[in-house]
Amino acid sequence: MSAPPDFDKISGDDLSNDDRLCQLYLEAVRRKFWPNTARDVLEFWCLAEKALSDDKQGTPGRLFYSLVKAKDSSFVTDAHEQRAMARIHSGDRQALVDQAAEVDGSPTPEPDEVEDALVGREVGFYHAIMMQCFLPQKALRTGRREWQVKHGRASMLVEAGRVVIPEKAHEFRHCDVPSGTKPRLILPYIMGYAVSRKTREIDMGRSLRRFMKNIGMPVTGRNGKVLAREVENVASANFYLGIWNEEGGTTRFARVAKELSFWVERNNDQLTFWRPEMVLSAEFYDAIQHHRVPVDMSHLLQLSKSPRRMDLYCWLSYRLPRISSNNPTPIALRHLQPIFAPDIVDPYLFKQRIKDDLEAISKVYGGFNVQLRKDALWLVNSPPPVPEKLVYLL
Fold first, then answer.
1. DSSP run (H or E) holding 292
2. Does the reported pTM lie above 0.85?
3. Parallel, antiparallel, or unpaired: how do β-strands 272-280 and 201-203 relate?
4. CA gap 275, 262 in Å, rounded
5. Of 246, 197, 347, 388, nearest to 355 (Cα)?
6. What is the pLDDT of residues 226-236, one digit of tens each?
7. pLDDT of 252-267, one tens digit each?
8. How far is CA 112 from CA 21, 37, 92, in A?
9. Among residues 389, 386, 366, which one has the least CA distance to residue 317?
10. Which stretch of DSSP H or E encloses residue 68?
11. Which residues of the chain have pLDDT under 50?
């Protein structure tokens, strides 16, 4: 590599030259104002691409330096990321991480085990109680402001919140209790983002746009407004998570987000870009650090036409690995009906629905060992869809 450039006098040539940018990365890690992982290498290159394309003053190095110091990647676009990925591939990113660790004198990060487990999948997280107690499957009647559900010794109470009306100063709007399929994707997404990146600041722009595109819902026009409402419902809601045992009860209370902002911009082609920013509350962030369960987002996406199937999948993901390997456990269908199908009163119809749901889930993940016999669901110890080691490695 060439001689390291002066980090305080960065030029456009430094940002365009991969060798010089590598030296800048090493210096940023050495000065301890930039973290050192393969993901952070890519983000560093993304900021370089942003500075090169967005600079209007003829000083892209100054813009880049300010972005790096602020760790501000909120307005990095898909195009910036694609150009960055073309410049520095995954193997080169890991090699640079190893070199930076030597320069910094810190232990070399070992992401291989996590990366191998995550390859080809998007992993989200739920709080353990949310794997047993679920949001309403459809919108509540107008004016209803809370929802409560219980399962065994766990209970969840959700209160709808309020958000500002951007175009009306000093006015607030009532949100709804989160319901349906979209909050069942948004919640594990933001928890997964927070856990894997160890941050309360959630990128709801670049990565969520890509995520929603994967489920065939581009964030433009009416779809963008619908998604924005769902994000507001989730972010403003208050969650009460309760657990009871022989010694009494414990309550955890948290609003999901401390802060939520929406920015709408147009590019030269007059295409609208949706740029929300979310900061999780400290209480909510703390709760998911200690009681989290991983879920495979691709499985949820494949089941996303049915909230009930999404819930049943999550419940089986949580329950089956905890069943004793020598003790299959029957659960009476009458106990499951209020949880998974509160609107179905006919036991026979509920049994048929569960049978169909299990068949659909088995096509998405065939590892669940569960049997429907007479009027009970028999649970047999099964491996989780996502290795449990990710709970501790991420």
1. strand 292-296
2. no
3. antiparallel
4. 6
5. 347
6. 777 888 898 88
7. 666 787 777 655 444 4
8. 24, 11, 14
9. 386
10. helix 60-70
11. 1, 109, 111-120, 264-273, 394
